[in-house]
Amino acid sequence: MAGAAYDNRDGHIWMDGKMVDWRDANVHILTHAMHYASSVFEGERAYNGKIFKSREHSERLKRSAQMIDFEVPYTVDEIEAAKVEVLAASGLQDAYVRAIAWRGAGEDMGVASARNPVRLAIAAWEWGAYYGDAKMKGAKLDISKWKRPSPETIPSHAKAAGLYMICTMSKHAAEAKGCSDAMMFDYRGYVAEATGANIFFVKDGEVHTPDPDCFLNGITRQTVIGMLRDKNIKVHERHIMPEELEGFEQCWLTGTAAEVTPVGQIGDYHFEVGTMTRDIAESYEKLVRA
Ligand SMILES: Cc1ncc(COP(=O)(O)O)c(C=O)c1O
Q: Per UniProt, which keywords does this protein have (predicted)?
């Protein structure tokens, strides 16, 4: 199945309350979300048959929808049960799980969409290391020309499709330069995050990570901060200026897909894949399977 187009695979996808054949999990072209980005989603990983922080992801999905002005028409418990069903049907122990909620096709085709149904789908598939062998060597990141937007211009804390338009463009530009991903600054010029992962730096045995005041405060980010504090490592959540990049010794990314991925380079700045980075990556791997 690996390598097959995502719309042409065997298996089942949960859609609006029932399991449908993978190839029949389709929507109409006049789906509101397709035209106006009225959709929110989750990326989750199952390890040994259990989704890590499953409930937190379902709760975030509901919150993201509320932030973009709709209600997911299922309770957290119902979403949890649907994910269990999807994972069991996939036959996978280790899997990536994607839940997506969106404004469907209906009576409205303008910008307003109050009369269209809100829909939910959940799929699971096999997905290995997000950054391939960068996981060991340290990923090389480009610096994006796009900035994370102000919370006054878009609901920046939602995991909403509309926020990924600039991420896709940033990642394409990065890949064209031989990089795995791009680091983005925010609208004020502070270091923000990568296109699908949060960022951490190490200096003098302490950890510095951007204050998530205009981007997703990742579930992995919060988990890793907890792990660092348990190890009595000082974590500073603060605004980070671009000129500070030169002085940082180590760097890593966190995300459900990325897990803990060491970074070796951002633009012209170099980082070592050091002891703390390796230790936190290993501890995270143990925790998700604990
Ligand atoms: C833009 C962005 N930032 C951060 C993250 C990390 O979030 P999490 O750790 O909850 O997966 C993700 C991935 O979900 C993301 O897409």
A: Amino-acid biosynthesis, Aminotransferase, Branched-chain amino acid biosynthesis, Pyridoxal phosphate, Transferase
Which pair of structure tokens corresponds to residue 269? 């700045």
- Of 135, 140, 159, 171, the active-site residue reads 159
> Would you say domain 134-288 falls under CATH 3.30.420.40?
no
* pTM reported for the whole predicted model: 0.97
Could you tell me which of 244, 245, 231, 237 has the C-alpha nearest to residue 276?
A: 231
The reply to whether 159 belongs to the active site is: yes
Domain ranges of the chain: 12-125, 134-288
**187 Cα–ligand 1 center, Å:** 19
Specify the range with the lowest mean pLDDT, choosing from 82-96, 124-138, 204-218, 222-236. 124-138
